[in-house]
Amino acid sequence: MNTTKSHRIALLFNANKSFDREIITGIGAYLGSRRSAWDLFLEEDFRLRLNGIEHWQGDGIIADFDDPAVAQALSRCRVPVVAVGGSYVDQANYPQGVPYVATDNYKLIKLARDHLIDVGLQRFALFSLPKAPEQRWAQEREHAFRSLAQEDQMEAEIFRGCETSASSWDDAVQGQIAWLRSLPKPVGIIAVTDARARQLLQACTIAGIAVPEQVALIGIDNDPMVRMLTRIPLSSVIQGAQEMGRTAAHLLDQMLHGGRLADTRIHVPPAGINVFASSQHQPLKHPHVMRAQHFIRQYACQGIKTDQVAEYVGVSRSSLETYFRQELGCSVHDAILHFKLEAAKAGVEDGARSIADVALDCGFTSPQYMHLVFKRELGCTPRAYRERVLGTSEAQLACA
C-alpha cells in the first residue's frame, strides 16, 4: 500500500526557452528517481504567468528568478519556494530568504573562450543582448567576458545590438553586419545564447564572411531547435540546466519535509561543449581554400560536387584540388563528405528523427550510403552511433 503523501507543486518557467525546458527535464528526472509524489502545476502552453499566483493553494514552488517580477510576486509567498537563475558577482543581487540554484555565468563564458583559444584564436568578442531587467544574466556574462579580457590585458569587444522583431529585423541584421566587418579577423565570437548565435551566423552568410575561417562562433544553451535552423552546425556550451532542475527539486523536497534552507546558494557549472563546424577554426593561408570551405559549409548537405565548388571559387578543379592537398591534406570531395558526416552525426543524435530523414537532409544519395560512410569513418552504423550517444546520456542521467 502506497502511503506517500502527494504534494501540489507549481513550476513557474517559460518552456519556450531551452534553458527552462532543461530545468523542467531535470525536475522530472529527480521525481522519476525518487518516491516523491508531486502533482505539478504548469500553464497548458508552458508559459510563465503570475496573475493570481499569490492566491495559489499548494505546497511548494520552483520558479525562474531571472525575471525580477517573479521574485517580487513570490516575495510574500507562504509556501516553500526554490529559486533558479543566473549567478551574480554582486551578492546583493541574489534573492533573500530562499534557496537559490544558479548557472555559473563566469564558467560558461570561460569554457567558451577556452575552446576558442584551443582552436588557435587570439582575438575575441561577445555578442550580447540589450540591457533589460529580465536579462540581467546577459550582463553577468558580459562582466565575465570583461574580467577574462582584463586578465589577459586585452580590450573587451562587446556588441549588444538591438532586440529583433519583424519591424526591426533589417536594421538588426545590418547592425550585426557592420559590427562583424569592423572586427579584426580572424576572431572568435561568443554569443550569450544560441538564438543570438543563430542570428550572427545568418549575418555572416549575408555579408559573405567565412565561418569559421574568419569568424568562429559559439553559443550557449545547446538548443537542438536552433541547431536545426542553421546552415552551419552551431557549437554551443551545454549549461548544467538538468542538474540545476534535479538540485532544485531535491532542495524543495527537503523543505517539504521540514528542512530549513533559506539563503542556500548552489552554483552549477556547465556540462561541457558540443563542438560543431561553426567554431572549428583552422588557420588557412590560401584564400581559395578559405572561400571553398565557406561554400562547402553552407551547401554540402545540398549535394554539391567538386566542380561546383571550383566554379564558386573561380579556379579550375585541378588547381583547387592542389590547394586543398597543400592546406588540408585532403581532396575537395573529402572535405564535402566530412562536413556531411558532421551534420549527419548531429542529426542522428536527435532521437526524434529517422535515419532515412537524416540521410536525405544531409545530402547522402541513400540511407545505405550514409550507413557505409558511418561504418568506414566511425566504425559503427548510424543506429549504433545513436544508441551509443543516447545510451551514454541516459546512463549519466541515471547516475546523477
Descriptive report:
By secondary structure, the chain is of the alpha/beta class. It has 3 domains: 6-103 and 241-269, Rossmann fold (3-Layer(aba) Sandwich), CATH 3.40.50; 105-239 and 274-279, Response regulator (Rossmann fold); 287-393, Orthogonal Bundle (Arc Repressor Mutant, subunit A). It has 15 helices and 12 strands. A 6-stranded parallel beta sheet has the order 2-1-3-4-5-11. A 6-stranded mixed beta sheet has the order 7-6-8-9-10-12, with helices on both faces. α4 (136-151) links the parallel β6 (124-127) and β7 (157-159). α1 packs across α8, α3 packs across α4 (136-151) and α9 packs across α10 (306-313). The protein is globular and about 75 Å long. Residues 393-400 have low confidence and may be disordered.
- What is the structural class? alpha/beta
> Spatial order of the strands in the main sheet?
2-1-3-4-5-11
CATH class of the largest domain: Alpha Beta
Helix content: 40-55%
**How much of the polypeptide forms β-strand, as a percent range?**
5-15%
| Overall mean confidence score, pLDDT | 89
CATH topology term of the largest domain:
Rossmann fold
**Net shape:** globular
How far apart, in Å, are the first and last alpha carbons? 28 Å
CATH architecture of the largest domain: 3-Layer(aba) Sandwich
Total count of helical runs of at least 4 residues = 15
